[in-house]
Hints:
Dna Ligase, domain 1, about 35% helix, elongated, about 400 residues, 19 strands, four-stranded antiparallel beta sheet, D-amino Acid Aminotransferase, Chain A, domain 1, Rossmann fold, alpha+beta
Amino acid sequence: xxxxxxxxxxxxxxxxxxxxxxxxxxxxxxxxxxxxxxxxxxxxxxxxxxxxxxxxxxxxxxxxxxxxxxxxxxxxxxxxxxxxxxxxxxxxxxxxxxxxxxxxxxxxxxxxxxxxxxxxxxxxxxxxxxxxxxxxxxxxxxxxxxxxxxxxxxxxxxxxxxxxxxxxxxxxxxxxxxxxxxxxxxxxxxxxxxxxxxxxxxxxxxxxxxxxxxxxxxxxxxxxxxxxxxxxxxxxxxxxxxxxxxxxxxxxxxxxxxxxxxxxxxxxxxxxxxxxxxxxxxxxxxxxxxxxxxxxxxxxxxxxxxxxxxxxxxxxxxxxxxxxxxxxxxxxxxxxxxxxxxxxxxxxxxxxxxxxxxxxxxxxxxxxxxxxxxxxxxxxxxxxxxxxxxxxxxxxxxx
Length: 399
């Protein structure tokens, strides 16, 4: 789960981390009121969407000459003008794709006199099972170009969570940022604070870009992004309340209501599978046979008929889906339960795309019997390879 910048900064403030003063706004009036609470005379108006590259983004409705999603304002009146232009319009950035994201929230912050920009992030390094602290002297909007063109300017410090943050980690961060004197000491302290915040909130990603050195020699978190481990949110009801479903794919939101693991992809073959590993293998074999999966969908090991029906409907709501492959290995999950859900869902939505089903495991014969007697044009498959070949062939024939 991701949160907005202003929410991330509120969480960081709870750990003693310095951020500019600012207030969220859902309307033009609230944006003006937020500006009036700040000392000024310089303000920053920031679009709040779950995507990076806002500063270089463009609003679809405002044309190519329009300013991006992060704007300086030198008066309350300019804050109001920018808020009117941004709220309700669609911001397209390098991370949103051409469809962009509608801006429904703003963050109005106090302006900062910047002497230097840095980059600082924490990530889970799944290969080593450690926390990776990534820093660079080249912070700002072009960090992707830095990673591509001058990777030697990016430094990674790994931290074993069993050992925790140690003084040498702080010194390595300060060295990587090229800081000395008091700024060196500030960087060491900040590194420890950010690590503690990262671990305390069960974060998967914490990115500060930019971390800035102000004209008066202070380190300040100017922008922040945070993403959290969804499996740990039960420990953080306060963070879970920050979820903004308008920033998520509607199908993924619906799937979460049924406890389904669903991710939209760019292909044309819908997949319904039980088990994450089997789902990955199913997507791989679809691609091996010359097509592309339209989604990842894991119904889990103990799905009910209602849950399977919901999963089937979610797949069919995707207009890109030209065929569906159901691949079930019934261990805990019974094949007859899957079959009942498929029949119910297919009849309710008036299935009009090819459907190939491969069942194996508990109650498999009963499941196959339910499908055969359904009156639906379901194509049975003997194994996964057979299923993949059949769905690809069916889709090509239907086209």
